[in-house]
Amino acid sequence: xxxxxxxxxxxxxxxxxxxxxxxxxxxxxxxxxxxxxxxxxxxxxxxxxxxxxxxxxxxxxxxxxxxxxxxxxxxxxxxxxxxxxxxxxxxxxxxxxxxxxxxxxxxxxxxxxxxxxxxxxxxxxxxxxxxxxxxxxxxxxxxxxxxxxxxxxxxxxxxxxxxxxxxxxxxxxxxxxxxxxxxxxxxxxxxxxxxxxxxxxxxxxxxxxxxxxxxxxxxxxxxxxxxxxxxxxxxxxxxxxxxxxxxxxxxxxxxxxxxxxxxxxxxxxxxxxxxxxxxxxxxxxxxxxxxxxxxxxxxxxxxxxxxxxxxxxxxxxxxxxxxxxxxxxxxxxxxxxxxxxxxxxxxxxxxxxxxxxxxxxxxxxxxxxxxxxxxxxxxxxxxxxxxxxxxxxxxxxxxxxxxxxxxxx
Length: 409
Description:
This protein is an alpha+beta fold and 409 residues long. 39% of the residues lie in helices and 16% in strands.
């Protein structure tokens, strides 16, 4: 980019500056084109909606565990409504969408009269530049052509995977090749079926038409009668010995559906989404533990890293330094990690028999009410179990009680 002004900046230069390269499929890959790919839309929507639907709460550490800090001002801000225009679900869905496509999310922290934010207003990541001034991060936001400098304390920044520690990689730029191939496949499919899945052809005549206008008139007449959508396969009437000659296409070239399946698998791997969750069940079973384990894998290996990234960013940037020892943000994952009914039953039975859980703990996990009068708070343990220390050093047996002597008359 730092060359003579007489040499214009090419698309390749700009893409390299943005840590990517142009698509070899000659496709302009931006967020509008990328989100139009079915697999990209499915992956982004799946991850964003899954994260947005999970309860996000502010916890306070107490003796023996933690409880919801409903009295804290940040609890309602993140749990209910971050700003007047959006619910917590909509704000988090938009935030995660920014992360998945652009690699970063920014929200302006708007303080009220107190120490805590009163609203979080999302910003367009495409208009944001992060840089260091005197060793301090600052955010330059371009709006209406005017750059606005925001200090670090005024911006909630959740970055994705990055290189310099300041910004995450823009996914649609880094993976321009895979996404460009997918977009090209979608466009080819539309054109292929728009032509009734048939190749083009030509009209052959024994003689020659008189002039170019006559040729254009013949072509226009043919396409008007048989080329438009909804007019396919109509009866053709040819004059003066004219004959329609279709251009044949090899069958293997028409089987581009296999390419589209491959592209869909590539997109799923970019976002680390199991293919069956975006409708591709060709290579996996549709029922049983296979799908269940893949879904649990999605929670553990796809969602959990995103949730951890969120939690730590919120803790660092919204809580006061002296509060971080007692408060922390937490996504509730228990609903997503439930197995089938039989698996949960065996797990709960084992935990209760070993004295790890009580009945009320199980009821809470199942979103059911506790038992009355504290009956569900009792812990049980199997009578035939003992500690290791007791097994190695058994206690001395109690001394036998002497039998009472009988009195003789």
